Amino acid sequence: MLKLENISFEVENEKEILKDVNLTIEKGKFIAITGPNGGGKSTLARIISGVLKPTKGKITFYGEDITNLSITERAQRGISFGFQQPVRFKGITVHDLVNIAKGEDLSVMEASHYLSEVGLCAKDYIHRELNDGLSGGEIKRIEIATIIARNTKLSIFDEPEAGIDLWSFNHLIDIFMKMHQSKENSIIIISHQERILDVADEIIAMVDGAIVKRGAKESVLPELLHCEDPKNCLNCQDILEA
Amino acid sequence: MNDIAKKLLKEVSGLDEMPKGAYNIRENSKSVARQSSENIEIVSKEDKSGIDIIVKPDTKSENVFIPALVSCSGVHDLVYNDFFIGENADITIIAGCGVSTGDSCDGSEHNGIHRFFLGKNSKVRYVEKHIGEGTGTGKRVIDPVTEVIQEEGSYMEMETTQIKGVDSTRRFTTAKLKDGAKLVIKEKLMTHGEQFAESKFEVDMDGEDSSVNLISRSVARDYSRQTFISKINGNTRCMGHSECDAIIMDHGVVSAIPEITANSLDATLIHEAAIGKIAGDQMIKLMTLGLTEGEAEAKIIDGFLN
After folding, report:
1. Domain spans of chain A, in order of start
2. If B90 and its partner were Cys, which of A74, B38, B123, B288 is the partner (CB 3.0–4.6 Å)?
């Protein structure tokens, strides 16, 4: 489904952020990417969605070389990207954004369905502007609703749990599990949250711009945290929750 | 009324035909259609060009249409309209001006001098749209002057919109508010080409617990220039807020010049201004949803000026 070959990304006069990354993700998979801050996870997500261009390497999506395609072209081919810090707009309403995501003019009832999916009371939000009046958690849930509305072959979420309260977080896991029921669509989630790592098919650990380990949670976390029993280790839990 | 005037009328006031209730339609410096209603009387001024609109006390939920149209080049229209709003009345005024100069190299202009006298506890919603059309080099100029006097407990909401088409505008609005009077002004403006627009507000809050809220959202494209000047004087216990939010594109220039003066310890006055280009993140977000760069830009602008 998605193939990254020798992807590197460097910024002039700064260190190499991604170093020769090779990665293949199969159709219908739920992949979690984890690792310490500054490891290159968000950069990788931005490179897949086209927000950043790699300085080296090739990206193939369903057999098509998309390395030089724009953000729009990749979106139109079926890649969605949920921002870590959702963008705010003056004058654009939640309903407008869901319409844009869906690519058609939905009725209030149809658009409300996607808000209900992320645990928002639709009637309180559907006509709200996406401005500073919304809390971080509210706008994050709306961001996720737009990705659900798109229902694309690949959905990438950059730290979807950031800014979301505990109740919503439980609901968030359910959302991802529901999305994962589709065996046609794939999910990539960048996360530090163990409960998200728990429900993923596979975990990819990134450190210093490189993939250091890929596999089931039990095999990846010990190497990442240099600990044999991260699940019962308080220090590891602190690192994961951070 | 010719086809150009009919088109302008539709764009300015949404009218396909003569409305019910009170109206006065002005075309090329003359009143071409007029009707008073039981509660709203429209009469010509005797000493100069213009009308008096007299609204009886306690009039409720009535509209009055007063569009002004300039459907050819070489017109220099100056009109004086006075609105006398009776106590406890609650009405909507749909005004606006359309200037079309066709393919002429002669310009046209419309200058409306409007005065509003709001009686105690009256409520007015004033909606005004400016339209400019034409392919020639003739300049389309609209310079409105608005003076508002609000008695105790009255409420005035002004919504003014000018999207492209008008080459030069100097808008000057003054207001004096008595006890408990509230004034809300929402301005939407887009300039392009080499257009120029200036909006100047001077508000005196003389009455206790009076308030004003000025909200301006504007977009300056190409080589156009805009100036937003807001002077708010809080002369007693009152609340004043002005907000200028502008997007600049291409070589557009926007100046925001606030002047807030608290002449009383109990006056609370705030001015906010933000001028900048469209945020890159906003464009990227909409492009990740499948819009092209041009579509994303149009959505952001449409929403901003909505």
Report:
1. 2-241
2. B123
